[in-house]
């Protein structure tokens, strides 16, 4: 096991059968600790002790899609839907800026209300008030023209998890969506010079270790600047109600392997990890993650953006989240970096 981990550390690659062997067979706490320590060592060669902070604004829970795992899917009629208008988004950014954030992540369902014109207006306004900040969008699949307009308005980065690299599994989870189109969106975003983020969920129903190897291979070949990996957590108002869901331990293994395969990636320690385990986010940092995304959304909408059950931090003010996360990062032995936190490849351009 350790030979494989060392080869992965030294070469940033392994064959598929070797990755599968690691996923199938790594069990002992000593081997796991070895893997996590190597992942942290690799992260330190590129980013030292830094953990980058991004302010997350969940600005709409309307969605036209029906992903079978997602709590805000279109067919879930129990969701209390909301949209934040331009002023509400700007005041989240203002508060975030005062708290020190220099990246704002605007995330939402695929909501046709937010036309290009509306989004361009919002992005331009954020950029004119906070020219030293980066804007990340995470609003799903759009046309190339739309991605062009959003980039020209000042968007720097775009998160679009590929969700799973297995075509069969993807199609079983995403009614009326296209596996090929999701990937095509990622390639378009790359072509348009966005810093791109892909990623996947761990523990999806019927997901095998072979599927996870496909995820790792896809990420290795795409080498996105950001990679979001989190456990799948079931939601009762979805067709997957009663599914088992992913575990923190398996997600940590995938995070560490990803760090070693794509060493310079910006890898978030996700809220989903903190939801499954009170120390989940610290554990992720100790397995190679180097980004956290505390919530800046107004507290009265937080509970409504319920992708999965028991999501944490829904009642906390932005300032509280900032402080809480900072304490956790320091306690885990890392330091908080409030800068824009661009990927190393993009630092010269900005
Ligand atoms: N609509 C945008 C998109 O499609 O990229 C962004 C919003 S979407 C809710 C953000 C991410 O949440 C998804 O990419 C998915 O991986 C994750 N997610 C959704 N439901 C989840 C669940 N039940 N458990 C864990 N993660 C989930
Ligand atoms: Fe659209 Fe989840 S189904 S955000």
UniProtKB/TrEMBL annotation:
Keywords: 4Fe-4S, Iron, Iron-sulfur, Metal-binding, S-adenosyl-L-methionine
Listed cofactors: [2Fe-2S] cluster; [4Fe-4S] cluster
PROSITE patterns to which the protein is assigned, alphabetical: RADICAL_SAM (PS51918)
Record-linked Pfam families: Radical_SAM
Cited InterPro entries: Aldolase_TIM, BATS_dom, Elp3/MiaA/NifB-like_rSAM, FeFe-hyd_HydE_rSAM, HydE/PylB-like, rSAM, rSAM_sf
Record domain Radical SAM core: where: 49-264
UniProt xrefs under Gene3D superfamilies: Aldolase class I
Name of the featured protein: [FeFe] hydrogenase H-cluster radical SAM maturase HydE
Native organism: Fusibacter ferrireducens
Encoding gene, per UniProt annotation: hydE
């Amino acid at each position: 096991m350790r030979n494989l981990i060392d080869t992965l550390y030294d070469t940033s690659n392994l064959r598929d059968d070797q990755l599968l062997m690691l996923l199938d067979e790594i069990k002992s706490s000593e081997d796991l600790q070895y893997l996590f320590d190597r992942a942290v060592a690799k992260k330190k060669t590129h980013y030292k002790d830094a953990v980058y902070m991004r302010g997350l604004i969940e600005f709409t829970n309307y969605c036209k899609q029906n992903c079978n795992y997602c709590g805000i899917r279109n067919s879930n009629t129990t969701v209390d839907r909301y949209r934040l208008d331009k002023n509400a988004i700007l005041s989240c950014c203002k508060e975030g800026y005062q708290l020190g954030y220099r990246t704002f992540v605007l995330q939402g369902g695929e909501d046709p209300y937010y036309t290009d014109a509306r989004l361009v207006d919002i992005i331009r306004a954020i950029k004119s008030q906070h020219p030293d900040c980066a804007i990340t969008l995470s609003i799903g699949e759009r046309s190339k023209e739309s991605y062009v307009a959003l980039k020209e308005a000042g968007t720097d980065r775009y998160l679009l998890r590929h969700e799973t690299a297995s075509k069969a599994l993807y199609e079983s989870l995403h009614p009326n969506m296209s596996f090929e189109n999701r990937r095509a969106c990622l390639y378009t975003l790359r072509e348009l010079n966005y810093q791109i983020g892909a990623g996947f969920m761990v523990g999806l129903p019927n997901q095998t270790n072979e599927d996870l190897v496909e995820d790792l291979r896809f990420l290795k070949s795409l080498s996105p600047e950001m990679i979001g990996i989190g456990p799948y957590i079931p939601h009762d108002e979805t067709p997957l109600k009663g599914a088992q869901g992913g575990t923190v331990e398996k997600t940590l293994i995938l995070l560490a392997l990803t760090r070693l395969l794509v060493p310079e990636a910006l890898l978030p320690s996700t809220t989903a990890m903190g939801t499954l385990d009170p120390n989940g986010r610290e554990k992720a940092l100790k397995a190679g993650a180097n980004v956290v995304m505390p919530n800046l959304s107004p507290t009265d909408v937080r509970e409504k953006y319920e992708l999965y059950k028991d999501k944490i931090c829904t009642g906390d003010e932005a300032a509280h989240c900032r402080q809480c996360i900072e304490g956790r990062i320091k306690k885990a032995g890392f330091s908080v970096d409030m800068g824009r936190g661009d990927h190393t490849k993009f630092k010269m351009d900005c």
